[in-house]
Amino acid sequence: MNKNFTTFVMCLCIFVSISNVIASETFSPLISGSNSGKVNQWKVEANKRIEKYRKADIVISIKDSDGQLLQGIDVQIKMIKHAFPFGTVVNSKNYLASTKFASIYRHNIKNFGFNAVTQTIFWNDFWDEDFKAQQKKANEFYKSEGFQVRGHTTIYPRWSNTPKEIKALSKVDAPKAISDHIKETASRMNGWYSDWDLVNEMYGHMDWIDSMGGMDSLAQWHKISKEKSPDTQIYYNHNGMICSTKNSRFRKNIFNMMKTMKEQNLIDGIGIEGHLNEDSPSPEVMYTYLDWYSELDLPIRITEFDLGGEDRQEHGRKFGEYLTTFFSHPNIKGITLWGFTDGFMWQKQKGLITPKGELLPAGEVYKNLVLNEWWTNVTGTTDSDGKLKIRGFLGDYEVTATIKGKKVKKKFSLSKSGVSSSLVIP
Predict the structure, then answer these.
(1) pLDDT > 90? residue 420
(2) Residue range 180-208: average pLDDT?
(3) Is the dihedral of CA 148, 416, 238, 244 positive or negative?
(4) How many angstroms separate the CA atoms of 420 and 61, rounded?
(5) pLDDT at 212 over 90
(6) For residues 190 and 227, what is the distance between their CA atoms, to the nearest angstrom?
(7) Which are the contacts of 187, defined by CB distance < 8 A and separation ≥ 6?
(8) Distance between CA atoms of 316 and 309, rounded to whole angstroms?
(9) If you compute the radius of gyration of the chain from its CA atoms, what whole number of angstroms results?
(10) Residues with Cβ < 8 Å from 13, sequence gap 6 or more?
(11) pLDDT at position 317 over 50
C-alpha cells in the first residue's frame, strides 16, 4: 500500500492532533450556537444573498423591422425552468409503471417543479439484469423530460450493504470484484449522470475500506470511474455533516478526510446529506457550517434533504428556513429532497404531500418559495429607449412582445453574466 495513503488511513482511525487548525477561524462554526434573537434577520440576509448569487440582469430590446427601438411595447418575461437543480430522489419502478399511483407520482414530481432527480444504483440491486434494464429505460425517460440526473451510489462501504457474493470472496478476490463492478457500472452509465456518489459514507467504515485494499483501492476506483465515465463528476457523500451542533470531532475528521481526498484528486465535489430534525442547528449556524466546508473549494450539493418533526406547521416553517439557507449559499450547486411523500420516505421524516396527494404545510412552503418567491414572471412596457430591464432568477425563459395585437416570442437562457436580447416586430 502507498505509504501516504497508509498514513492517511491511520489518521482517520484515530483522533489526530489538529490543535493548529482548531486555533484558526477554520473551525469557528463547530462551536454550538443558536438564533441571534433578531427576528427574521437571518431571512433578510439570506434574501440579500439570493438576490446577489441566484439572479442576474435581463435587458429586452424591442425593435421594428428597420431597427428602430420601440417604446411603450407590452412585454412579458416568463420563466420556464430554474437553472438551479431542485430535485428529489426517484423510485424508477414507480415512475415507469402504468398504475394510478405512478401517474400521481409523476404528476407531483412535475407539480413541485423538480428539474433534477437522483437515481439510486445500490449494488445489491445491480446484480439483477431486470433492474439494470429498468434503470436504463428510466434514465432515458428522465433525460427526455429535461431532468438533470445524478447517481447514488456505486460503493457503500458498510458490511450490511455489501452483497453477499462479495462477502464470500477472499481478501485477494474481493478488491478485483469491486473494481470490476465499478468498471461495469461506469461503462454502462457513461453519459447518464451529471455526477454520482462513487463512495458513500466511507468515514466510520475504514475497516471495510482496509479489507478491500485501503486507500490505494479508492484511488484505483476513481481512476476506473474517470476512464469509463469521463464526464461524470465524482462526489463524496456523507451524513451528519450539518445535522447537529454536537460531535465537532466527527466534523473535523470528515473535513480532513475530504481535504486529503481533494489533494489526491479523488473527488470533484462534496455531497452533504442533510437528514435534519427538530434539534438541528439554526439557519445562522447551518450557514457557517456550509461556509466552512466551502473552504475546501469544492462544489457542494445537499443530496438527501429531509426533516423530522411532529408539529406540521412548525415542520413547514423550519423546512422553509433550511431550504432558504441552502439556496442562499453561493457554493450550493443543487438541493435534492430524499423523498416527498409521507409514508414513502426514510424513517419517519415528514413529506410535502400525503399518500393521497394532499398538500402538507411543508409542501405549501416549498411551492411558495421555489415556484413563487424564487420564480420570475414579469409583465411591463419598454421605456423611452425601447427597453425593459429587470432582475431575474437564473434559468430558461420565454419573452413575448405584443404590438397591435401581434405577438412575437423568443426564448433565452439567463446565466450569471446576464442577458441582453432583442425582438424584432415585423
Answers:
(1) yes
(2) 92
(3) negative
(4) 8
(5) no
(6) 10
(7) 228, 229
(8) 9
(9) 24
(10) 206
(11) yes
CA distance 165 to 139: 27
Answer yes or no: are the C-beta atoms of 323 and 335 closer than 8 Å: yes
Segment 358-388, tens digit of pLDDT: 999 999 999 999 999 999 999 999 999 999 9
Find, among 285, 204, 281, 210, the residue nearest to 249 by Cα.
Answer: 204
**Grid coordinates belonging to 339:** 423523498
* Strand 74-82 with 377-381, pairing: antiparallel
Buried b (16+ CB within 10 A) or exposed e, 390-405: eebbbbbbebebbbee
In whole numbers, what is the pLDDT of the chain averaged over residues? 89
Q: How many CB atoms lie within 10 A of CB 384?
A: 8
pLDDT at 185 (0 to 100): 93
CA 26, 305, 102 angle in degrees (round to 5)? Answer: 160
| DSSP character at residue 356 | T
Q: Which of 413, 375, 419 is nearest to 86 (CA)?
A: 375
- Tell whether the model's pLDDT for residue 247 goes beyond 80: yes
For 126-145, give the DSSP string. Answer: HT-HHHHHHHHHHHHHHHHT
pTM for this entry: 0.90
Q: Phi then psi for 191, rounded to 5 degrees?
A: 90, -5
Q: How far apart are CA 119 and CA 139, in angstroms?
A: 8
- Compute CA distances 419 → 65, 81, 167, whole Å: 22, 16, 55
Dist. CA 224–CA 312, nearest whole Å: 46
Give 181-204 as a DSSP string: HHHHHHHHTTTT-SEEEEEES-TT
The amino acid occupying position 355 is: P
Reported residue count of the chain is 426
Distance of CA 87 to the CA centre of its chain: 7
Q: Is 60 exceeded by the pLDDT of residue 33?
A: no
